[in-house]
């Protein structure tokens, strides 16, 4: 059997090119004039928040306020991408934060409109997408498209920079407390995404990270000539690729016995209705939990395989496979990783790429409302509202145990958004606040 391995050149798409001026302007972050009330407050203006606000616009729900820690649409998402020097997205062209079912321009058509700005490799990817084959999207194209969607649906004008501190149910609505003031909302949608997974306490003896260690979403210091990367996923691969391109020697530590290369981070079936049905309410919780555990395994895009194999042959990359980490230390200002079996790996700096964990609302809502079960929130499976707070909804990774692992993906955001936006629009239209909505009403609007 022959395995097709795409060329690494797909990974080095141009970033920061001179797009037509209508896609470039990014509004300065708004910090003043935060409204005191709104029909809907969206917490987070990343791809999920953009999808929610755009869908509500189409349903004629316009009194929407987005509160984001950066104040920019998809800004934190793109900042993380740029920290990794990531040039293409793993998600294909059909996965985008635009709104389905309306006469909006989708990502693939948008990319075709920029044909003259694209490289020959990027044009080939578009042709592959048109033919139904796997393709990758340049970050530049994705950013321009997000700005287009935000402008088209008035999202930028309704986004404020701020940190949400607490959500509290009050008189049939939600009091949203931020550092800049409070907002009285009839409905709140949490689009918080995921946060980096922290090191196990035993690695540092319960103390802080040694100075020569950092996480994947922070840049590697310029003076580091050798780097230790801990983790087996795509984020680790991007850190390694950037470090090799900058002339560093890299040690790669992974608990797994071998790298796991695959096109998508989850099986493509989970992006279709039959895949999501494997997480329907009728499926026993232990079965869903088991499925989720198998689908959240670390993997690397096929495009990295030739790059990593060549670097290992040349001695610029040393891979420590099947080696669990026991402890971290910083002797002499360097980074030292102690492995099971007694081996120690040293470098000028170490990057911890241990994956991410979903933000499920625990920091903003009381534990009683979140109803955490095995790390997941207790959501109404028809509406994605918190069962104990039907005025609050979750879109993104927090909905994984209802929609399956695709909920973490940009395309999964659209599936969740359709359900949430339809529910909110029906409630506001009926003037019933948090009154129950039937499955038929949701399906009719979707």
From TrEMBL:
A Pfam match? NAD_binding_9
Instruction: Determine the domain of life of the protein's source.
Output: Bacteria
Annotated FAD-dependent urate hydroxylase HpyO/Asp monooxygenase CreE-like FAD/NAD(P)-binding domain residues: 41-194
**InterPro entries (UniProt xref):** FAD/NAD-bd_sf (IPR036188), HpyO/CreE_NAD-binding (IPR038732)
PANTHER family, per this entry?
L-ORNITHINE N(5)-MONOOXYGENASE (PTHR38663:SF1), PTHR38663
What protein name is recorded for this chain? Answer: FAD-dependent urate hydroxylase HpyO/Asp monooxygenase CreE-like FAD/NAD(P)-binding domain-containing protein
